[in-house]
Amino acid sequence: MPDNTNHKSALHVMKGISQPSQINEEAAKKPHSHKPRSLTTQEYLDGIYSGNRTILSKAITLIESNLTSHQEQGQEIIAACLQNPKSKIQNLNSRIRIGITGVPGVGKSTFIEALGKHLTAKGHQLAVLAIDPSSSRSKGSILGDKTRMEALAVDPNAFIRPSPASGSLGGVARKTRETIILCEAAGFDVIFVETVGVGQSETTVHSMVDFFLLLMLAGAGDELQGIKRGIIEMADAIVINKADGDNINKAKTARIEYANALHLFPPPESGWVPKTDTCSSLTMEGIDRVWEMIMEYQRITESTGYFHRRRMEQNRQVFRETIETGLQHHFFTQKEISHTIARVEDEIMNGQANPYQAATELLERYFQGQ
After folding, report:
1. Cα separation, 357 vs 84, whole angstroms
2. CATH 2.10.260.10 is right for the domain spanning 38-83
3. What is d(CA 224, CA 277) in angstroms, rounded to the nearest whole number?
4. Strands 96-102 and 158-164, how do they pair?
5. pLDDT score of 34
6. In CATH, which superfamily holds the domain spanning 91-304?
7. What is the pLDDT of residues 21-46, one digit of tens each?
8. Are 229 and 165 in contact (CB under 8 A)?
9. Ranges of CATH 3.40.50.300 domains, the chain
C-alpha cells in the first residue's frame, strides 16, 4: 500500500480514559467503624415492651444463639418477660397461639397471609413464626417466607420471623417457645406457628400452641392416603384450602370425607369436637369462618378450664425439656467425656465395643465425677 500521509484513515486508535481507582478514597479517609455496642438486658426489655420491632428481632437472634454469654442474657430477658404484668399466664387467655401445618404445596403461606390480613384489619397484632427447613448438611435454609407473604410483611400490625430449623426435632426451631414469649411481651395477641409439614414437627408444634389447624387439598386421589392418624387426632380443625374455581365441588367432597374420618376418633380431652371447612386464600371465601371457628374453640375451652390447664401442662413440659437439654449439654461438654466419645465411637464403628455397654460406662463415669 503506498504511503499517503495526507490520507485520513477511518481506522484510528481512540484515546483511552483512565479507570477509577478500586479504592474508595473518601471511605479510606474515614475512621474505621467499631463493632456495634451490645444492648443491655434492660435496653432489650424496654424495646420489647414498647413494641420496637428491630430490638425484638435482635432479642430473638440472641436467644437463638449458641454462645454461652448470649444464652445467659437471653434467659434473663425471658425471665423478665414472664414476670412482666403484660405477660403473666393468667392474663394470656385473651391471646391465642395457633399452629398451622399441611403438606408442601397446600398453600400454607398464602393461607397465613389471607387469615393474617383478615386479623390485622380487625385490629389484632399478629406474629408469624415461620419455621424454614434447614439443610442437614450445610445447615442453611431458604428463609423465604417474607417474600411469599409480601402484603403481610409490610403490614404495620404484623411481624414475620422466619427461623431456620437447624436440624432440631421435626424441623421445629429450637427456641420457638422463647420466641413466643418475647412476641407476646411485645404486645402480639395472635401467634401463628407454621410447621415444615414433614411429620414429627407437628407433634412438637402441637405441644406449644392452643389451637392446631391442619390444611389439606382436594382432588389429590384418596384424601386420607398418606395422612398419619396421629396428625388427624391432634387437629382441632381440618380446612380444605384452594376451594375455588373448578375445585369447589372437590373441596366440598373432601370436607365430608374428613368429617366422617374425625367421627371415628374418640372425643378429645378438651371437649371440643374438631370441625372441617373449606376456604380459598385467593378469593378470601371461608377465611372469616376459620377465624370464627378458632374463637369458638377458645370460648368453649376457656369456659371448661381446659385452655388454662393446657397452658400449665405445656409449662410442665418446658420444665422437663429444659432439664433434659441442660443435662445433655453438660454431659457432652465435659472434657473427660468429650475426649473419650470420639475414641469410643470409633470402637463401636469397628465392632470393638458394645454401644449399650459403652454408653452405660460413660454415664457412670460422668455421674462419679459430679
Report:
1. 48
2. no
3. 16
4. unpaired
5. 57
6. P-loop containing nucleotide triphosphate hydrolases (3.40.50.300)
7. 555 555 555 555 556 678 999 999 99
8. no
9. 91-304
